[in-house]
Amino acid sequence: MTDPSGPPVPPGGGTGDGSVSGCPPSENGGAARTPGPATDDGGTARPPGPAPEGAGAAGRGAEGSGAPVRRTTGLRLPALLVAVGVLLASMVAGVLAGAADIAPGRVVLQLLDWLPLVSADSGLAPVEQGLLLELRLPRVVLGAIVGGLLAIAGAAYQGVFRNPLADPYLLGAAAGAGLTTTVVIVLLKGDTESLSVPAAAFAGAVGGVLLAYALGNVAGRGGGTATLVLAGVAVTSFLTAVQTFVQQLGVEDLQRIYGWILGTVDGGWSRITLVIPYAVVSVAALLLHGRLLDVLSVGDDEAVSLGLHAARVRLVVLLAASLATAAAVAVSGLIGFVGIVVPHVVRRLAGGSYRVVLPLSLLGGAAFLVVGDVLARTVLAPAELPIGVVTAFVGAPFFVAVLRVTKRVET
């Protein structure tokens, strides 16, 4: 029943003239809205809110499109200085560790004496200086290079596939390197100390990745990263089977084969000069794509809406990460878990932006493997553990923890 003294009140609190109760009518007869802060383009600004985790420099949509903009900060100087400090401390510890008993103070003075524009008298004999320069120092430098390459490659793979469990050996690099190395040792009687094994390992790693990529394209152009991962699994299984067959042809060489497969960074300056050109190219390419990986992390549709060629970025990053992996495998053998452990620790400590994750993973991976090599040399001294065993002891439980966290997030 309505009140005969006035017009019926419309549902929802209206007043009958198109306005809303408690709000003054507008000039066109509708309810006037409460004015809000204006933006540069004449619209009404949204209230500020927290940026999503792992945001990149670009947003989910172009400015003015109505989509929320994801913002992140780049690499901060304190974090960079801490990472560099940890790396330098680990490298000094690596030079100090060894079977020969050399006073740590003299070792530090000798390292300072080798720096430009620095003169320090360490009092070390020429033999001791040669031991540091030809044995310990190149081992530490090679370990830092290999660890950095594996860590930054792992971070890049995780960004491309948007999968926290992706690692540098996902697309068949390890299987390809293992096969060609086994062929050189068993059939060609190559020496693991010569450059023939690193060259064969590099060719095999690159060949394994290219084979996986070609198979992924043939299997389905629209399959995206899932098809590529399945192609990598297939290539890895096939190449591993061939490697096992070749191993049976030279049982007497199994010790040398497994010695290389379990990993080592005892290669001397010759292997460092071999790996540096590939390391510089791959690291530079990955660091330059950190911002684009942030955009890619929000999804292909959003990335395309921002004008990003997602397929091209993914291809370049995959090739650069595979080149880094191949270079590391060529001079050190198969060292696992570095590409999973280090990027996850960096994300927990410094955030999810790839402009931060990639450079800090490079430095953190270098420090991680140098410390791992110190443990490999000292745990059973004077005997020495393969460094791949040390990283597996650390990485396997960590991998399980990451798997559990990932499963909890998905559910």
TrEMBL record:
Entry annotated with the keyword ATP-binding: no
The record's annotation in InterPro entries points to: ABC_BtuC-like, ABC_transptr_permease_BtuC
CDD domains registered for this protein in UniProt: TM_ABC_iron-siderophores_like
Does the UniProt entry include the keyword Transmembrane? yes
* Residue ranges, annotated region (Disordered): 1-69
Q: How does it sit in the membrane?
A: Multi-pass membrane protein
Where composition is biased (Pro residues), the residues are 1-11
* Example GO BP: siderophore-iron import into cell
Any one GO MF term held by the record is: transmembrane transporter activity
UniProt entry keywords in alphabetical sequence: Cell membrane, Membrane, Transmembrane, Transmembrane helix, Transport
Q: Which sequence ranges form a coiled-coil region, renumbered to this chain?
A: none
Membrane-spanning ranges: 79-102, 140-157, 169-188, 195-216, 228-251, 272-293, 313-342, 354-375, 387-406
Annotated family: Belongs to the binding-protein-dependent transport system permease family. FecCD subfamily.
- Protein name per Swiss-Prot or TrEMBL: ABC transporter permease
Task: Give the species.
Answer: Planobispora takensis
